[in-house]
Design a protein that fits this description.
single chain, alpha/beta, Rossmann fold, four-stranded antiparallel beta sheet, 6 helices, globular, binds adenosine-5'-triphosphate, ABC_transporter-like_ATP-bd
Amino acid sequence: MTDAVTLDGVDLSYGSRAVLSKFSLKLGVGSFSALLGPNGAGKSTVFNLIAGLLLPDNGDVRVMGNSTKTSRAGLRHVGMVFQQSALDLELSVVQNLRYFAGLHGMKKPGAEIERLLSQFGLEGRENSSVRDLNGGHRRRLEIARALLPSPEILLLDEPTTGLDPASKQAIVDAVHAMSAQGVTVLWITHLLDELWPDDDVIVMQSGNVVSHGSFADLGGATGLSRHYAGHERPQL
Ligand SMILES: Nc1ncnc2c1ncn2[C@@H]1O[C@H](COP(=O)(O)OP(=O)(O)OP(=O)(O)O)[C@@H](O)[C@H]1O
């Protein structure tokens, strides 16, 4: 499988605090990878390196073959959904999407906006103010927004935190469907019930990958919860 993302021998420190040391990881095109690990393991640091928001001190991060150190070209391919909302509450659903499309130089985004509104169950809410949407619909809009420029890679940092089960399921299903269509997904989560048997699971601890395999091969939720620590179990 061709790699959409490679981190090769990456060192990353915040001041004197070394978080990643000789860290390597590959994400194949169209793979769905869940990045798990206790608080402070380095998950968001990996996310930010792939997003180009951080550059490695040493080593290389490549996105669609382009090193983030020398080229921004690969980053055109990356959509991001952060824990914190990036939506403008004062604008309507469609205004948020049109504004984002403009930032990405999309000339005629109408058809793509309509397709995404339908895919994420937001038809009929085009003109609603984001302020009036519930948390589940806001998250769906956030993901639709990230997908608008048709990124080949989608990074999501705990996108379902705080959502009701139906909204959570809708997002989990939609993002898995994107991956089946060839989008490479990296999904940071603490919630094992969001994972499907064939998902690639990467468990980090203290800046290292300590387990890597399919969700099924790592023993599913039962097997992983013995080893993996989320918010609930701080020991790995
Ligand atoms: N800007 C920063 N300055 C200094 N230290 C930082 C900074 N960002 C992260 N860290 C530290 O780097 C380590 C890794 O943090 P990171 O946010 O990548 O972990 P994480 O696995 O995403 O954690 P969480 O699940 O809490 O989001 C932690 O010890 C954190 O305190």
